Amino acid sequence: MNTPAQAIDRSLPRLGQGYVWQDLTVGQCLRTFARTVTETDLVNFIGVTGMLEAIFIEDGYEGAAMAGRPVPGALTYALIEGFILQTMIQGTGLAMLELHQKILAPVLVGDTIEAQIEVTGIRPTSKSGRAVVDSRIDVFNQRGVLVMTYTATRLLAGRA
C-alpha cells in the first residue's frame, strides 16, 4: 500500500519548467499553441488597460478603416507573450530587457493567432548562471498572414 510522501521531493523535475539558456541554441525555432481571440478577450483587455477607443468599443464604428472587430496590437502581443511565459520561460525568465515591435496586419475578434520563435543570440553574463537571450517572434493568423513581428531581449536563468 502506498503511503503519502511526508515532504515534497525537490529533486523531481518540475512540470512546465521553462528552458534554461543552456538548453537553447542560436537558430533554434519553436512555435506556440494557437489561440482564437474572442470578444471577451477584447472587452476584458480594453477594460483593464483603459484603451477605450471607439474602434475597439463600438461594433460597426462608422469611422473604422476596416470591417470587423479589430483588437489592439497590445492584446495580440500579450496573448503571445502569455504562451511564451507559460511554456518557454516559466520559472527561468528573469527580465524583459528590450522589445522592438512591428504590427503588419490587423487582428480581428475571431482570428486565431500563433507564433514562431527563433533564438537569434545568446550571451552569458558575468553573473554565473545567467544569459541575455535574443529572439525574433513572428505572429501569424489562421490564414498564414504575418500580423506582427517583434524582437525580444530577455535575461534567462541557467544552470550554475
UniProtKB/TrEMBL annotation:
Coiled coil: none annotated. InterPro entries: HotDog_dom_sf, MCH/BMMD. This is Acyl dehydratase. It comes from the Bacteria. It comes from Pseudorhodoferax soli.
